[in-house]
Amino acid sequence: MTATAPLYTRLANGLTIILQRMTHAPVASFWAYYRVGSRNERTGETGLSHFVEHMLFKGTPTLPGHAVKQAIEREGGFWNGYTGADSTRYFETLPVEHLDLALRIESDRMVNALFDPEDVKSERTVIISEREGHENSPGWRLSEEVRALAFRVHPYHHMVIGDKADLETVTRDQLYQHYQTYYVPNNAIIVAAGDFEPAALLARIEDLFAPIPSRAPVPEFQRAEPPQAGERRVHLTGPDSTSFLQIAYHTPDVSHPDYVPLVMLDIVLDGAAPQHRATRLYRALVQTELATAVSSSQGSNLDPFLFYLSATVREGRAIEAVEAALLQEVERVQNDGVQAGELARGIKQMRAGAAYAVETVTGQASRLGTAEVLGDYRLFDTLVDRLQEVAPADVQRVAQTYLVAKNRVVGWYTPDKS
Amino acid sequence: MIVVQPSVKLPGPDDVTRTTLPNGMTLLVRENWANPSVVVSGVLRGGSANETREQAGLAQFTAALLTRGTTYRTFEDIAETVEAVGASMSVGSGVYLSTFGGKCLHEDLPTLLELLGEVLHSPSFPPEQVERVRGQILNGIRQRETSTSAVARLAFWSTLYPAHHAFAWPLSGTRETITALTRDDLARFYADYYSPQGSLLIVVGAVHTPDLVRLAESTLGAWRATPRFPPLAAPWEETDSLVKLREVRRQSMNLPGKTQSDLILGMPGLSRRHPDHLPLAMMNSVLGELGPGGRLGTRIREDEGLAYYARSSLDAGLSAGPWYAYAGVSPRHVDRAVDLILAEMRRIRETPVAEAELADVKAFWVGSLPLDVETNEGVASELMNMELYNLGLDYLYRYPRLVNAITVNDVQAVAQRWLTPEAYVLAVAGPEGQ
User: Fold this and answer.
1) pLDDT value of position A10
2) What is the pTM assigned to this prediction?
3) How far apart are the first and last CA of chain A?
4) Which residues of B fall within a CB distance of 8 Å from A242?
């Protein structure tokens, strides 16, 4: 458990540092976050952030090729990198006595990644293969269509992996330029959680990261999505014999006051426990045998994103009936409101979930970093308390405000008849 | 090569309490007060190996019904009780074992154990729930039928193993078998095989051991049932030589409209208790696990850029499972990927692995122990392995010595014994027949 607040500071070069001591096990997790993702990508350069993430595993002059992966595993650690819409992040989780290796790796590849043209060539086809793997999934294909329809202007319109046309054409120079622009200390966040002495770790981080010069502020690429003025629909068909439904409503970003009641609306519909069988949506869709799976989610993003309702249609049922039943659940909240008891139950579930989420150094560090990218490292820790202030009327109001027909995109995936 | 004894307190006889309840259930407890949660992980002897091919999916269908209603509670009551406190609870089934367990905050442990006991000893198999779950399983089967990875996997297992062996059919069954199974079939399977005798209950987390033992006795310990049929005899004794493969068998499954092909190439392997297990697992790590996916990942992904993933796996369990390599590639690269897999199999048979490569595997296996046991789930999983495979409670204490004793010659010897580049099963599922 994390009894103490993390150490939070910023170096002169603009690097943000968050260090959380955890003493449950002699292990530590070290993360480098960069405030760049698909959100920052223009048409013609989609997928650039994710491609750059791949290239950061292809070596530097001092740690060439797979040396990074080898070095981490040799110390008993594991590693990975992820690219999202709002950030790109890398981590190493290790026995704490080997934590220094992670600092050396991340300070090195913040500036020294090679981007060898031969590596760009082989990694291009790896990423195209990754995308083709996604394309095999009907749910992923439907998500891509719904996103593209929801965001006509904002870069959230493309998937993190990027469009195939761009994956085939982006150049080594474009990748390197992207790296040079965004991989700067003033655009990065270092997070560590584990059984270390924060002051000593901070001193070592300063040794390795303070000499990296800050650069020009990263360019802001802002193309706000204009309000949607009418329902948009897409009907996709394909080789799978199951039908899938997605409904997405435009909702505000995490800093907006309505974000918290929207999270509560998500909890009221779909619960916040690890399992989701005693929920409004499950009762209305799965217990009635219209669907075999159903869920909702409120996005936590820097720019306004989406509130999703998703369902897998049960064999022999009409997708129209599933859509009507989902919308009826939305209308129930809009017309009849919600009970205080439902909110209290959601709070208890969130408290349990928050306890589970910080049982590992990896989970804790990623939670702090993701929150900091969104504006405040305490975001998820304070969320439970903020949810407690939500009244039933707030939930009803945000349902009435955002979950309306003209603000939604409806996506169907049904089997190809041919 | 520096492989130090890990600095972590490993679970073992010093801090694990092992006892047997009067009903025959073995209980293992390890306290952990670093966080407020408790993990419960249990197994019963019985699974798809106890069903016939004509009843494929019976064990898993039965397990799914256990949390769907008891003599005392409806499905809705059970789900509400678990979810209201942010807990989880599940019952499932594999080939030889059925599993039960969950996770909760420590104050909710009595509720969770009481519920688990109730679903295990008093399931009511409500007819409407049988139909609801049947529809869900059928939907899952339909999705499986158009998934390239699932189709390739099923084709691989059903080609490698004889038709009468449970490995040859899917755990979730087929459209025909699931449609035909009745409520009585489920209730009978439950009565025939579900029993605390020979079962295991592992509890790790914020619990006082004496309190937990009393709680276990009054909940799961109160379950008395004698199975009509005893579970299968220790399966490793009869199946290490289950399959002898003498030729190449190819299966191509055409899934029009898909973009990528999945391929699996492999052959019969061994059980977790076979003396070759540890060196063969190390061989597998060099070949298809470490770093970018071992030598396979290096050749297929890093050097040639053919695939997002190319790895290998050794499925050694209670009985002899296979070794296989797998990759997701463009249909036009399937042949090239297969050639590279076969070339790497030959290389590791013909040339001893480098000392440095083996040292990397050893360093990772021993060095990662602190991370393996960081969570209650991780500790429960280690304790489960110790019990299921008779490794002894002190296994993790001995583990570094066992690992470090393996030599490059041992690894080459098992590669030559188990990898057969001239006799294998290749299953490919994708948009074009290969």
Assistant:
1) 98
2) 0.95
3) 57
4) 139, 142-143, 146
In chain A, residues with a C-beta closer than 8 Å to the C-beta of B376 are 359
Taking residues A45-68, report their average pLDDT: 94
Residues of B whose CB is below 8 A from A77: 367-368, 371
- Rounded to 5, what percent of chain B is helix, strand, coil? 45, 20, 35
Q: What is the pLDDT of residue B432?
A: 73
Question: Residue B222, class by beta-carbon neighbours within 10 Å (0-12 exposed, 13-18 middle, 19+ buried)?
Answer: middle
Asked if A162 is an interface residue toward chain B (Cβ–Cβ < 8 A), one would say no
Q: Which amino acid is at B36?
A: P
A178/chain B closest Cα distance in angstroms: 22
Class of domain A7-209: alpha beta
- Mean pLDDT of the A269-279 span: 95
| Ranges of each domain in chain A | 7-209, 232-415
**Tens of pLDDT, residues B343-400:** 999 999 999 999 999 999 999 999 999 999 999 999 999 999 999 999 999 999 999 9
Q: Which of residues 184-223 of A touch B (CB under 8 A)?
A: none
Please determine, for residue B6, whether its predicted confidence score (pLDDT) is greater than 70: no
Would residue B11 count as lying in a domain? no
Closest CA to A252 of A243, A261, A240, A242: A261
Note down the domain range covering B206. 16-232
A58: nearest CA in chain B? B302
- Chain B, nearest residue to A275 by Cα: B88
Which residue of chain A is at minimal alpha-carbon distance from B374?
Answer: A25
CA nearest to B258 within chain A: A136
Residue A302 pLDDT exceeds 50: yes
CA distances from A62 to A71, B191, B333, B423 (A): 12, 64, 33, 43
Q: Tell me, what's the ipTM?
A: 0.94
Topology of the domain comprising A232-415:
Cytochrome Bc1 Complex; Chain A, domain 1 (3.30.830)
Write the CATH number for B307. 3.30.830.10
Contact check, Cβ <8 Å, A278/B79: yes
User: What single DSSP character describes residue A8?
Assistant: E
What is the percent of chain A where pLDDT is above 70?
99
Chosen for mutation from B153, B357, B368 (greatest number of chain A CBs closer than 10 Å) is B368
Chain-chain contact of B367 with A74 (C-beta, under 8 angstroms): yes
Please give the order of strands across the beta sheet that includes A244-251. Answer: A232-238, A408-415, A244-251, A305-313, A291-298
Place of tokens 């009843």: B55
Please report residues of A whose CB lies closer than 8 A to that of B306: 125-126, 129
How much is the average pLDDT of B228-233?
A: 70
Average pLDDT in chain A: 96
